[in-house]
């Protein structure tokens, strides 16, 4: 492989992308407006690669991988020959507009210009460059070398070919691209995470549970299951008859829960039908039993792993919970 990506921004997420792409065999050129950030970035890069090596998660010596990463004070030098530019600057619209203006001017005409933005949609800054058809959001799970999901969020400016090229590049790096079909603040990852966080804060506020107990329900319950199957497949497999049966039985309760938080988003018959049709296209009901067995076996493997971990993960003494 002789493929090159450029990373604009030598902060934490920029280093994480350097680890990801270099480990996948890409040459990586890192640029930052503050060259003094490079020493820390080099140290972080080596530390993360060493940790991956310690856990058997890289297939080459650390030095061989790190040699594929170079650091550049001049943006044009970093962009030369790069098929992808991964922007990793702070989450500020004014900064992103300025950076993408330069990326559009100096990058290769075929380069995908991808922003790591966590919430700002690309149409708000893509207009700063005539290369707007090459701009899209590519929001990772953090760190991307351990969490493989990659949200691709095009704007109305983005060319279909840009999405296709981005999909191929990220897959070649070992990621799993997911297409977000409409620009919404927070995309999928942070909107789903935000929904859980909002309810978690409310449960603490209302004296229902402690911070630690909520985290325990997530890591030992929902989180463990969701690491194998997502929320739609979870309820599809939890109820004989599938997701349509689950919606009929539990939909009213979930509607009441939402209403108690001022959120009136009932599962309408049309919405249930649409979700059911998508699930049945993925898993016909005559395969339901075998998929339930697969889920159980996957959780059994996780159980074996978690039993090898220390009995507690708390780093601070647990304090009594007071209403």
UniProtKB/TrEMBL annotation:
Its EC number is 1.1.1.35. The chain crosses the membrane at residues 6-28. Keywords: Membrane, Oxidoreductase, Transmembrane, Transmembrane helix. Pathway: Lipid metabolism; butanoate metabolism. This is 3-hydroxyacyl-CoA dehydrogenase. Residues 4-183 form the 3-hydroxyacyl-CoA dehydrogenase NAD binding domain. One of its GO terms (biological process) is fatty acid metabolic process. InterPro entries: 3-OHacyl-CoA_DH_CS, 3-OHacyl-CoA_DH_NAD-bd, 3HC_DH_C, 6-PGluconate_DH-like_C_sf, 6PGD_dom2, NAD(P)-bd_dom_sf. Residues 186-252 form the 3-hydroxyacyl-CoA dehydrogenase C-terminal domain. SUPFAM superfamilies: 6-phosphogluconate dehydrogenase C-terminal domain-like, NAD(P)-binding Rossmann-fold domains. The keyword GTP-binding does not apply. The keyword Methyltransferase does not apply. It is an enzyme of class 1 (oxidoreductase). One of its GO terms (molecular function) is L-gulonate 3-dehydrogenase activity. It comes from the Bacteria. Pfam families: 3HCDH (PF00725), 3HCDH_N (PF02737). Belongs to the 3-hydroxyacyl-CoA dehydrogenase family.
């Amino acid at each position: 492989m002789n493929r090159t990506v450029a990373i604009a921004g030598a902060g934490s997420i920029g280093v994480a992308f350097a680890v990801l792409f270099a480990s996948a065999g890409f040459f990586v050129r890192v640029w930052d407006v503050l060259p003094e950030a490079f020493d820390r970035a080099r140290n972080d890069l080596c530390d993360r690669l060493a940790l991956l090596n310690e856990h058997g998660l890289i297939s080459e010596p650390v030095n061989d991988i790190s040699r594929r990463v170079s650091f550049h004070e001049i943006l044009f030098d970093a962009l030369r020959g790069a098929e992808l530019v991964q922007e990793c600057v702070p989450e500020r619209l004014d900064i992103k507009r300025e950076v993408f203006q330069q990326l559009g001017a100096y990058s290769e005409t075929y380069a995908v210009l991808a922003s790591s933005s966590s919430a700002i949609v690309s149409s708000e800054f893509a207009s700063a460059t005539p290369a707007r058809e090459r701009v899209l959001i590519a929001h990772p799970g953090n760190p991307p070398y351990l969490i493989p999901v990659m949200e691709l969020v095009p704007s109305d400016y983005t060319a279909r070919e840009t999405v296709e090229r981005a999909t191929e590049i990220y897959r070649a790096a070992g990621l799993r691209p997911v297409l977000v079909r409409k620009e919404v603040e927070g995309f999928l990852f942070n909107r789903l995470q935000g929904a859980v966080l909002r309810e978690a804060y409310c449960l603490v506020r209302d004296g229902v549970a402690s911070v630690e107990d909520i985290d325990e329900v997530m890591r030992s319950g929902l989180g463990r299951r969701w690491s194998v199957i997502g929320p739609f497949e979870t309820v599809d497999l939890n109820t004989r008859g599938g997701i349509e049966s689950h919606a009929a039985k539990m939909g009213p309760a979930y509607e009441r829960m939402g209403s108690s938080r001022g959120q009136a988003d009932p599962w309408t018959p049309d919405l249930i039908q649409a979700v059911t049709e998508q699930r049945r296209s993925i898993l016909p009901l005559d395969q339901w039993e075998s998929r339930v067995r697969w889920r159980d076996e996957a959780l059994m493997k996780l159980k074996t792993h978690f039993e090898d971990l220390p009995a507690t993960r708390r780093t601070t003494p647990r304090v009594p919970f007071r209403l």
